[in-house]
């Protein structure tokens, strides 16, 4: 694979997107972020992309109308841009089946917990950390996984642990987990670009991990 072509889907500030941009620009990831797509026009991640000369697209119902039309437009642009890998980096929308089926084991998501804890329908953003603190866990973390049609149910690629201190609140815990996300998401993409990931059933075999 002579340079993987990546599309990053976002909904917010894009700090994970920035981590990917940095890894691409330092050539740690052998590839190119060919497109950044947001379902929210005011997402700051779009500004980050534009600052680095990356093409952006806003996919919202005000522009495209019915969901089926938006889904078809998304698939068309991904195929037109010859995308090899889709990365969901804080994308707060359900990815349609037509995309998942068209890109099997080529869609990654970053989740702010150690799956299978605090994941699945309704677990996103601050709610993940609120529930973790409410349960009183001592260790949490972040997970990168491939996406299938089960929410947070796809094969796990990488996980990074984070200690939960007694003094932590939602904000401080979120910040610590974000640091873990910024570490493992670029690494997962790097491994994909170097063809070092193999999906066997619902498990991922990783060759020669070099951090």
UniProtKB/TrEMBL annotation:
Reaction(s) this enzyme catalyzes, per UniProt: N(1)-(5-phospho-beta-D-ribosyl)glycinamide + (6R)-10-formyltetrahydrofolate = N(2)-formyl-N(1)-(5-phospho-beta-D-ribosyl)glycinamide + (6S)-5,6,7,8-tetrahydrofolate + H(+)
Site positions (Raises pKa of active site His): 152
Alphabetically ordered keywords of this record: Purine biosynthesis, Transferase
GO cellular component, one term: cytoplasm
Molecular function via GO: phosphoribosylglycinamide formyltransferase activity
Annotated SUPFAM superfamilies: Formyltransferase (SSF53328)
Domain of life: Bacteria
Family matches, as Pfam families: Formyl_trans_N
Example GO biological process: 'de novo' IMP biosynthetic process
EC category name: transferase
Positions of (6R)-10-formyltetrahydrofolate binding: 67, 109
NCBIfam families for the chain: PurN
Family to which the UniProt record says this protein belongs: Belongs to the GART family.
Protein name: Phosphoribosylglycinamide formyltransferase
């Amino acid at each position: 694979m002579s340079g993987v072509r990546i599309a990053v889907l976002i909904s917010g500030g894009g700090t994970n997107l920035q981590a990917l941009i940095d890894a691409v620009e330092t050539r740690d990831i052998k590839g190119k972020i060919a497109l950044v797509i947001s379902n929210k026009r005011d997402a700051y991640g779009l500004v980050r992309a534009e600052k680095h000369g990356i093409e952006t697209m806003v996919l919202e119902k005000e522009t495209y109308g019915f969901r089926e039309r938006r889904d078809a437009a998304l698939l068309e642009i991904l195929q037109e841009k010859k995308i090899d890998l889709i990365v969901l980096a804080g994308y707060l929308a359900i990815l349609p089946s037509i995309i998942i089926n068209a890109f099997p084991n080529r869609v990654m998501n970053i989740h702010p917990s150690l799956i299978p804890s605090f994941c699945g329908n309704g677990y996103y953003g601050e709610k993940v950390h609120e529930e973790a603190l409410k349960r009183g866990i001592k260790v949490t973390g972040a997970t990168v996984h491939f996406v299938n049609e089960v929410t947070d149910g796809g094969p796990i690629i990488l996980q990074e642990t984070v200690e939960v201190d007694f003094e932590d609140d939602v904000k401080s815990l979120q910040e610590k987990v974000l640091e873990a996300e910024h570490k493992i998401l670029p690494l997962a993409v790097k491994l994909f670009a170097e063809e070092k990931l193999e999906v066997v059933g619902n498990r991922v075999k990783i060759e020669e991990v070099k951090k």
